[in-house]
Specification:
159 residues; alpha+beta; seven-stranded mixed beta sheet; 3 helices; 28% helix
């Protein structure tokens, strides 16, 4: 439990969850329609926190989300934001008859920072356990993420 901010009294956990919800909404709003696979990981003791979220686009253009997956994903992201722990988010979007797009952000000091196309490529083409190089996925574009726009929950300071 993180408790209240000593500067402003706001509950740090609740503020982080609100911020994480807004960040996830901005990520989904800027992603192209289709099937999306998101992974969020946050370094924590005694083990890394990981959550996966699958979404797709309904015929009316709205995003279809599983409630339990969304809650878990948002909670892991909020933990990273609140504790300022290192972590990352990666999104793979798939649309029929087009290459998949893969991009992401690192979590640094409680803020998402876009990864370069090369960083995304390196992450996907390196075995995390051995460090060995892996072949790139075919029909996949490793790219820079879209601009997420301003944070919807600005604060005079970050918790």
């Amino acid at each position: 439990r993180l408790g209240a901010c000593t500067s402003c009294g706001q509950n740090i956990g609740q503020a982080a969850f609100t911020r994480a919800s807004g960040l996830l909404a901005r990520i989904l709003d800027t992603a192209r329609p289709g099937n999306r696979h998101l992974v969020c990981s946050v370094s924590a003791a005694p083990e890394t926190l990981v959550a996966v979220l699958h979404t797709d686009t309904k015929p009316d253009g709205a995003c279809r989300l599983d409630e339990a997956e969304t809650l878990e994903f948002t909670t892991v992201l909020a933990a990273g934001l609140a504790t300022r722990s290192p972590g990352g988010l990666v999104l793979r979007s798939s649309v029929p008859n087009t290459p998949d797009q893969v991009y992401g952000w690192r979590l640094h000091q409680g803020e998402p920072e876009p990864l370069s196309a090369g960083e995304v490529f390196d992450a996907y083409c390196t075995d995390a356990e051995t460090g060995d190089l892996l072949p790139p996925d075919s029909d996949t574009d490793y790219c820079v993420p879209p601009d997420l726009g301003p944070d919807a929950t600005p604060s005079p300071h970050r918790h």
